[in-house]
Amino acid sequence: MIPREVLKNIRRIQITTSRMVTDVFAGQYQSVFKGKGMEFDEVREYQPGDEIRSIDWNVTARTGRPYIKKFVEERELTVMLILDMSPSCSFGTVKKLKSQLAAEICSVLAFSAIRNNDKVGFLGFTDKVEKFIPPRKGLRHVLRVVREALYLKPQGRGTDISVALEYLNKVTTRKTVTFIISDFYAPNFKKMLAVANKRHDIVAITITDPRELELPSIGILQLEDPETGRDFLVDSSDEQFAREYAANALARIKERKTLFNSVKVDSIDVRTDIPYAKSLFAFFRSRERRMH
Which CATH number fits domain 4-33+75-208+267-291: 3.40.50.410, 3.10.20.310, 1.10.340.30, 1.10.8.60? Predict the structure, then answer.
């Protein structure tokens, strides 16, 4: 039995995100992802009237006879939502925790997908896979995805993006549109991200709180690393420390952006102090322009 408060919160998110999807997002989603349109089916011998542009020159060279690539229209997409549920996401100094914001973004993407008759799957991870829901269609299924995104209690204490991506490749047989929603405080995931992106269309959604970029000058602070549990003291009013803290934060963001660019993964930067709809809409508009 699901508690009434949980149902109420899921219903609130459903109403909020559904309105957003109806007003703007679904059209952009469809344009950007449905725009790919065709997927490879097979090769067959060239016949008079076939498009010259469809000739598969590799097969033609091997056989000595002209062959063309045959494509079929993509009737539906499979959307995978990979959600970072590690302790570092249970942080926030504005209106919401990073984890709450990430769950809401999951909802928007899930409702956008079912509106376009696509399948939606869910994978929650920490330093291990916490929950996998196979892709399916329908409102009941999406509401289950939203519930798990909001209320699943993870067991792991660290963050391992490679584990999640490796699992994705094991459980999916066809190409998916995969959104990874995380703060990306994880080491050594570049290789696995590159491998997964060759098979899937991966979009990284980064979640950042403003206090991860700059600390307020309020004197001595006791901070805790949520994934190791280690406590430490810092003097936030120390100007040199403040400069180093901000410089390190910017360096991390630059390094992350460079990594995504190097493996050709699109990314969306979301902050807890800025309405996430703006960031999502801006990304979809820019990707739509790039494609067309």
Answer: 3.40.50.410
Expressed in angstroms, the distance from the first to the final Cα of the chain is: 48
Residue 154 has a CB neighbour count (10 Å cut-off) of 20
State the pLDDT confidence band at 35, using cuts at 50, 70 and 90. Answer: very low
| Residues 105 and 83 sit within 8 Å (Cβ to Cβ) | no
Q: Are 252 and 214 in contact (CB under 8 A)?
A: no
Q: What is the DSSP string of 218-277?
A: -SEEEEE-TTT--EEEEETT-HHHHHHHHHHHHHHHHHHHHHHHHTT-EEEEEETTS-HH
pTM of the model: 0.81
Query: Domain spans of the chain?
Result: 4-33+75-208+267-291, 39-73
- Cβ atoms of 92 and 209 closer than 8 Å: yes
User: Do 236 and 230 contact (CB within 8 A), yes or no?
Assistant: no
